[in-house]
Design a protein that fits this description.
The chain is an alpha/beta fold. 32% of the residues lie in helices and 24% in strands. The strands form four sheets. A six-stranded mixed β-sheet has the order 3-2-1-6-4-5, sandwiched between helices. A five-stranded parallel β-sheet has the order 8-7-9-10-11, sandwiched between helices. A two-stranded antiparallel sheet has the order 12-13. It comes from Micromonospora orduensis.
């Protein structure tokens, strides 16, 4: 039987983003117990157990938020009418109107793929970039295959640059750094006859302007630009089309925000679709 730990390792190896959720405190009569855990996928699927269906709705919504910013979160789910916990940095308190059990605390840890940096060229600058990128916990690839790369640094200094840029763009890489002067870089891109969208993905001269001179300093400026693209500009660490965030709806009975999926309780009444946090709310709505 596959455990949650096994599933987490499998997702990590396949470079799939997910959230590992662990119950750290639970108050009777909630069905969850400390140590219960689950993984939440980008489409909202929950594998494992961190509480009943009402608690799962809150966990799912909060987990998908952590996937966007990569920041861990302590989620406190309280039944309606319970006094709130004191405000704590890094904690989110939600009052779940249909969560009739005791309070529960769940630690949400987003696990995002390690970014992959492709390095093209055999020069002192490319060697310095590879060394610094590894220090920054990037997975460095010098094989020339760019599928799955987060970014590619082309530092051939005149050797094979056009082929490397073209290959990176064709592989869907979102950030291509070309080490060249402004004039030579513009001329090289003109020869490639890139579309406007492709040209926007190529950054040349590569790196932030810090007055860099040595290969190590140039590598620092290049990696600073790559990190800024990841942390500030929203460059995806794992290329590819992100899973669409599930549609949200308001439960007309309890007022909870629910994420709409194949298993979400649903009813169509008077031509209107309604979604519910649990079967109990659905039954109360249809019985009214």
């Amino acid at each position: 039987m596959t455990t949650i730990a096994d599933r987490a390792r499998e997702l990590t190896v396949s470079r799939a983003p997910f959230v590992h959720a662990t119950v750290v405190r639970a108050q009777d009569p909630t069905s969850a117990r400390p140590g219960d855990d689950a993984v939440i996928l980008p489409d909202g699927t929950i594998e494992g157990f961190v509480g009943g269906v009402c608690a799962e709705s809150s966990v799912r919504a909060a987990a998908l938020d952590t996937l966007r910013d990569g920041i861990t979160l302590l989620l406190r789910v309280l039944p309606d009418g319970t006094a709130t916990f004191p405000d704590t940095p890094g904690a989110l308190v939600v009052v779940n109107p249909c969560h009739s059990g005791g309070a529960i605390e769940i630690f949400l840890r987003p696990v995002l793929p390690v970014p992959v940096l492709g390095v093209a060229g055999s020069t002192p600058i490319s060697a310095a970039v590879a060394t610094l990128a590894a220090f920054l916990d990037f997975e460095v690839s010098t094989s020339g295959g760019y599928a799955g790369a987060t970014a590619v640094v082309v530092a051939g200094l005149g050797k094979g640059e056009q082929d490397a840029v073209r290959a990176a763009l064709d592989a869907g890489v979102g950030f291509v750094a070309l080490v060249a002067s402004r004039t030579r870089g513009a001329a090289l891109l003109d020869e490639l006859a890139l579309t406007d969208a492709e040209r926007a993905r190529v950054h040349t001269p590569a790196g932030l302007e810090i007055g860099a001179r040595s290969p190590q300093e140039i590598a620092l400026s290049i990696m600073a630009e790559v990190v800024r693209a990841l942390r500030v500009d929203g460059l995806a660490s794992s290329p590819g089309a992100p899973a669409a965030r599930p549609q949200q709806a308001i439960d007309p009975v309890c007022g909870m925000t629910v994420l709409v999926g194949p298993d979400t309780p649903h009813a169509r009444v008077d031509g209107q679709d309604q979604w519910f946090c649990c079967a109990g709310c659905l039954a109360r709505y249809t019985a009214a």
